[in-house]
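so my prof wants the structure for this chain in the tokens format not the other one, which i didnt know existed until like an hour ago. anyway here's the sequence
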Amino acid sequence: MHVDIVPVGEVPAIVKREASAGLRSVYDVDVTMHDAQSIPDGAYDANRDQYRAEEFIELASRLGSGEKNIAITPKDLFYRRRNYVFGLAYLDGNGSVISTYRLQTSSDGGISARSAEDVFADRVRKEVVHEIGHTLGLEHCDNKRCVMNFSPTVREVDVKEENLCGTCNRQVL
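here's what i got, hopefully its the right format
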């Protein structure tokens, strides 16, 4: 399988590197990194001061030539009535998106000795793997350690592992 990553806006090198590494390690896929793209016209909602996640998915699907395509953006995304989303993908679709905007906040209250950069890198890998998992047909998993577990807060993202649980892994083989 081949995954195209489409950076949208100013995406730091660490984000591109970690996203690519996460996809390669969990799904054993080839990854292509596209050149940075501009924010899609019409994506910004002035009333919310956020961006519509669907617009980024459409951009990734249109530009990406991989079997699966994911946009990565530093912009704050929302979907329908949700206050925000870390990412979005359509089940069994070929496009998806993650936002790093809210992945940079702290959640462990200083308990962890890990650097903020390491925690952020882990979150990027987990969210990319999670959204591509949806495009492969995986739904949210009840296992709190599985990368496919629904995580509405960074605290819950931090609890997850980067990998699929056995049940989810068998579904994508």
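also thought this was worth mentioning. The first strand starts at residue 2 and ends at 7.
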